[in-house]
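Lab notebook, bench 4. The sequencing result for the construct came back, and we need a structural model before the next group meeting so we can plan mutations. Quick request posted to the team channel:

Model the 3D structure of this chain.
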Amino acid sequence: MNSPAPKSQAAVSPPQEQDTLYAVRQKVYMRAVSGIFATWRWALVWITQIIFYGLPWLMWNDRQAVLLHLTERKFYIFGWVFWPQDVFFLAILLIISAYGLFFFTAIAGRLWCGYACPQTVYTEIFMWIEQKIEGDRNKRMKLDKAPMGPRKIAIKAAKYGAWGAVALWTGFTFVAYFSPLEELLKSASTLAFGPWELFWILFYGGFTYLFAGVMREQVCKYMCPYARFQAVMFDPDTLVITYDESRGEPRGARKKGVDPKAVSKGDCVDCGICVQVCPTGIDIRQGLQYECIGCAACIDACDQVMDKMEYPRGLIRYSTENAIKKGWGSKEILVHVFRPRTLIYATVLVIISLAFVWGLATRDPLRVDVMRDRMSLAREVEGGMIENVYRLQVMNMTERPRTFVFEATGLEGVRIANNQPIEVGAASTQSVNMQVLVPYDAGKPGANEVFFVVYPEDEPGLKLREKTTFLFPR
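Done. Here's the predicted structure in token form:
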């Protein structure tokens, strides 16, 4: 009889742990915190949202103060009207924003992320709603573990409904920057939005709900590119949120008022509150991590614990790598904040900002595009004159109707046939055909330079000179 076959190695070997590509998300139940940095965060929430939600309702010259009117291809920003040809100003504004980000990051890390980033701002708003409806951290954790029932359904429905209302209003406000608010309100009263308006209200509102209500810290940890390249902009003199390990370790629990040295401990009581208040759920005591958004909630929380324990504040604080290593005080830190790197950023930022302001201040309120009519050849007309036909597009960049006068110069005897002033409406364009006449012997065969001079009738000193070519028959 044959002996039984041996069991396979897989059958007798112990089960192996399987590595996973993605870590399972542990939901972050953020604990409410108060303090100076929490006050600053909420101040920025109020400021940014008053501006965002309020600007579409602000009127200027009988229109919205800020309206990026895509249909008309005009951007109205208070007293300025920008056209597609003004994209240069947008480019400069983006450069200023980039240098501003570099400058503030080199000085104090992720200030933008911690205080003014829309993801941070709306997460704060959505979490405030959650706390008001579901309760504090312990109540929220208990509610999520409880079996589904009428009470839980009602609480969750109220929270999600409030989130949805805020998200939809946010999407509506966003679209109001690109489509006149008055028209949107009329559409909302009949639910007759245009297709692109409805799409962007739902799209922007839906992503506000998804990012601030559902994904939260995952956006900062996995989707935001800034978290990945922030280390490139840091150096040993950058102010970052830091745990003073030399003062805090070894950590451990003890009674209030006990001298840490008497129990061979550091100042950290290992309460874990700094982790509980962190919106991304990290432990700052493990050192600076890319997930840290610089909100300083852990500083507020730790300072409160230090107050209760009757220890000095600042176990977790804004400091620099060099300051921690060398024991610098605030004076030495401040001196190293203004180092060559930050001074260069500041200088470039100031120069570009001044150039931007100067460009806006000296921006011409008139623009003229001259195009020679290629369908109409140069021809000889009565009186021994040569005629060329041009098409002029006049852009009145002010918000009042203006009458413009036209002249032609550059060749002897040049004139515009049937020359009449032309009225152009407020913040609008008008095209006009003009026949330019030049004596036959005033130029050479081929191309000759001529100039159109355009100026408003009520302001003759404001003259715009545009060059073009005048063709003589060969």
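The first helix runs from residue 9 to 12.
Will bring this to the meeting.
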